[in-house]
Amino acid sequence: MTFPDSNPDERGTADRPSAPSVNTERVPSTHEPSAEPAPTTAVNGPIHRSAGSRRSRAVGVVLGIALFTGGILVGRLDGAAAAPTIAPQATETVAASSGGGSPAASASGDSFALIKQAWDLLHTQYVGRSELKDKDLAYGAIQGLTEAVGDTGHTSFETPEEIKLDESALQGQYVGIGALVDEVEGKPQIQGVFPGSPAANAGLGAGDAILEIDGKTTTDLSFEQVSALIRGAEGTKVTLRVDPAGAPEAKDVTLTRTKVTIPAVEWAMVPGTDTADIRVLQFSSGTTQKVVDALNAAKEKGAKRVLLDLRQNPGGFVDDAVGVASQFLKPDATVYVTEDANGAKTPVKARPNGVATDLPLVVLVDRSTASSAEIVASALKDAGRAKVVGEQTFGTGTVLARFDLADGSALRIGTIRWLTASGQPIWHTGLVPEQTVALPDGVHPLDPTAVERLGPTGVAAATDSQFLAGLRALGWQGAAAG
Asked: What is the DSSP string of 5-18?
């Protein structure tokens, strides 16, 4: 999936995938769910994980910031609190308690004795015991606990630094190079760049493979290591050795990290048609209003149908997912259903006053569509409001609650599972589109700006097969797929 140097994740969102295009921030309020997958961590820009493994992380991280891609973000809760009740409008946060009543109290004394024994042995027997750092050991132990839960890519641990990066991304900004990075065939590859960013100004673009970072080869680096190397403080420099798409030779490009604004929503009229191409890159704070603004502006320009592009969208705040879906649904429609640990199911309804409840609609998805983005796509599909075109989505299915720890770190714990309006789970299976269309090798999704530049003739010659299939599903009479 993709991630901007970091990508917004949806913790408290759906669940967490591997991550796409966009951005990496999450800042939900106490009970505000955010959905997500995928997958993704960004490094100074968006980064996603790509698909050798659908279970890797959500798409959509901006290099430098970790995006939410795995779970719907619900916000922060007291470490000793019970599972949260979804309340999208809540805005308060509750600092985690380090006092009594912690989950540790209910754990087996024998099990904790083992942990204490291991801790003491390391401090007394390890040959380098004087160099041990207790915080590193504690963080490692907590990370091990979350991994042992088996809720891979969802329930997780975050350091204070990672929390700050996530929160920054979900607010639509982060410090980085402004590139969307995905893992393609095990190698980091740029999937897109943000206008005006250091990556865009340096001429980097979709398909450029990152071979080295500050002289270190990426061949044996994990996705997280790549993200960490690209990430850095504002004003500092990073040198990437890239193998440009379509160019014969690799080259070194030195970029200065800066504040990058993540465009949650982009749109344009498709040349020669009455169709608005609206791309939602992530469900960050304010995405709903941006979609409303795009729809209203498109209708003023004569739009009579909408192509809603959720490809490479890793998710984000579930509150904004409900808000966006509500623009196309009748108020009595179900957007999604929550299921708690006791099996109790609660439908979440669309909100009134949608601005495009009657416009013909097609939704584009791909393997990096995750979490909150899957909620929107499934809601529109189940309500019969839209045809879904593209590839099977990531498969995020839990709502993640954030429990702050005493030092500013936090646990993201899957407390609620979400189901589609029809009661079907998405977790680990994803949403199967009604029309499956794969992109040809080496082809990347068209963004609205690129679509606008094509002109009517260029639209017919576009190589983005999913985009063309979506247009045809809306009645476009262009050339058939080749």
From this structure: BB----TEEEE--E
Among 397, 456, 399, 429, smallest CA distance to 270 is for 456
pTM: 0.72
Nearest-Å Rg of the Cα atoms of the chain is 22
267, 276 contact by CB (below 8 A): yes
Q: Evaluate whether residue 269 is within a structural domain.
A: yes
**Closest C-alpha among 356, 281, 262, 357 to residue 320:** 281
Beta carbons of 391 and 416 less than 8 angstroms apart = no
> Could you say which of 125, 150, 175 is where a domain stops?
150
Which of 91, 120, 150 is the last residue in one of the domains?
150
Total count of domains within the chain: 2
Does 6 map to a domain?
Answer: no
pLDDT of amino acid 170: 64
| Per-residue CA distances from 197 to 63, 285, 330, 408, 445 (Å) | 12, 21, 39, 30, 19
With helix as H, strand as E and coil as C, how does 59-115 read?
ECCEEECCCCCCEEEEEEECCCCCCCCCCCCCCCCCCCCCCCCCHHHHCCHHHHHHH
CATH of the domain at 356: 3.90.226.10
pLDDT (tens digit per residue) in 163-210: 877 776 666 667 889 887 877 777 898 877 877 889 988 988 878 899
Domain that holds residue 354: 265-399+414-436
Nearest alpha carbon to residue 74 among 16, 5, 4, 143: 16
Residue 372 lies in a domain: yes
- Does residue 297 fall inside a structural domain? yes
Which residues of the chain fall short of a pLDDT of 50? Answer: 1-3, 6-71, 74-106, 480-482
Which amino acid appears at position 42 of this protein?
A
Q: How far apart are CA 356 and CA 348, in angstroms?
A: 20
